[in-house]
Amino acid sequence: MTDTQLSRRLFLKVTATAAGGALFAFNLSGARAQNATGSGTAMEDAPQVTAFLRIDPDGGIVFLNPFIEMGQGTYTSIPQIVAEELDAPLEAFRVEQAPPGDAYKVFNFGAPLRFTGGSLSVRGSYMTMRKVGAGARAMLLAAAADELGVPVAELRTSDGKVHHDASGRSVGYGALAARAAAQTPPEDPPLKDPSAFKLIGQSPKRTDSLEKSTGRAGFGIDVQVDGMRFAAIRHAPSFGGTVASFDPKSIDGMPGNPRAVDLGSAVAVVADSFWRAKKAVEALGVTWNDGAADISSERLIDAALARLDETGIEAEAEGDAPAAIAGAVQELTADYVQPFLAHATMEPQNCTAWVRDNACEIWAPNQGADFVLGTAQQVTGLPAEAITVHTPYLGGGFGRRFVLDFATQALKLSMADGGPVKLVWTREEDTQNDYYRPMAAVRLRAGLDAGGKPVGLHATTVTEGPAARLMPGLVQPNGLDPTSVEGLVKQPYKVGARRTDMVNAGYDAVPVGFWRSVGGALNAFPYESFIDEMAHAAGQEPLDYRLALLEPGSNEYALLEKVRDMAGYRPGTYTAEGETRAMGVAQHEAFGSLVAQIAEVSVRAGRAHVSRVWAAIDLGSVVNPEIVKAQVTGGAIYGLSAALHEEVVIENGQATRPNFDTYPILTPQEAPEIEVAVVTSDRPMGGVGEPGTAPIAPAVANAIFKLTGTRIRRLPISRHDLGAA
Hints:
24% strand, 3 domains, Aldehyde Oxidoreductase, domain 4, globular
């Protein structure tokens, strides 16, 4: 993705706001302004990419952030970029969530879009946000030149002020804001040379740390609206099921003045407290029309494995891999299985909605405010300008909050009950009605020559990609969903001829969606495990084998050396703290970044225990190193939890492990010590939120093989009794 080029015509005129400050609205691909507090209107020509700054008279700076904050640090890193070019202290910034509207659609994938996902927020808006800060700075300099009666060339900026060193005078941005609003926007605001950066590349304190550490941060589940009632929900007991009938009288007389509402695929009860609504919906007599009640995850996996011999849709082909493998000295074949996975956001799905005759307000944890606006328009029939969307902090997203089923439900409940309604799903409803990470069966075949070097590699995956369901425009004309083969195609290893095929698994009845790192986490496990299998078949050490398959001097080669040195890598088993341990390695590229990880593993009571993880990430250039480290750490924890424990088991068309007692996630006691190194290079800036998730599963599995001789080819690892190392 390239950032939109800035020109004189593409700046929006600066306008004054009722708050007394100056609103700096920079239109990067359109021709007229939009109300920064409304939902926006369609542009007459090109779509917009816009960011807004308001500088108040006291020098405070309000930044309307187009990206959602769900722990990944966008409320710090994005204003940090703007503050760098503006020459303003980050402490002066107050970050607010930008409303829906074309003015904030900072991406263009053939159409203007705004969302938070794909590890795109910083890398996809970096130049745009720099130009926002630089443009505002240029206008403030022009205002100061008028104010002080001196040439702009004699002025400099720092710490939210314009300085005239010759006379010793300084003027704060707040005092200049109104005059700056009258300045002509610059045609091409000058940007700093990176060597002059003071904020970019540093790790200032996060702007959201105080309110989150003191409990003042507002999440969706915390929303309070005067007069609101509460809703609890019961979904159909099988995927695709619907309400056949229910008896509303069965809850008559229960406390809280409960009202039952038919939502089609679910029934909900609205009452004066959540607990009363929950008890009433549990007591409600409901009969259901069966959906896909015969669906079983185990049968779906068996069916996928049975189809691995099929010729699928070609995703990649270089040379004739099948022929190269057939003529090789040694041939290897291995089948791997990845289960369905839940997102398991710590904050379950929730939404508060208030629909009136001519207006609507909605408070929805989401990963795309414009998607919420569109949902509200569709459900209520109201125009965009009558709808106000509030986006609170998210207690986890991981791709789940792209799908707005919970928002649709809350809107309908408000319409039925006649007032504001807060809907909260229980953990059980959340887990059993998720949009799961797809299941996949993957076969990898390789041919080795007499020296153990690969001459061909053929990958076949039987799966479904989430894009086909949620973003069908990404599906290629031949039917290939590219998200299903991420991590299998375009790999850096020199493997000779290569081919990758995708077979559509056809489990349409199971809802699937985007899950942190998408195809990366789905396919890094089989691919990096198989590279390890190739190394052992060749009689070579796995890390050295990888280096031999990489181009010396490449970024991948250097990163693997980096993580090797960080860990003090040991090729065999060894004793530490009274137990036998081994190190496993894996590397992966995702979202424009390279990540290499080494996991130190032991076996305790037949279960894998991960003591330490070393991770190195090459993302080209970096805005905030500590946020990068935190995201790589969080990604590794998320991926490790899935690798060790997580599996959605479906029986009779329903997920059967609905809460954390049966769908366990990694506990703090299990979490390893994690060390992260951030590497900069000449690569284009890469993403951060997701790349750390993918390599951890194969790194752990590869260590387990060293320890036990057991090759893990099906996750989670907890399915396997590893005995004693």
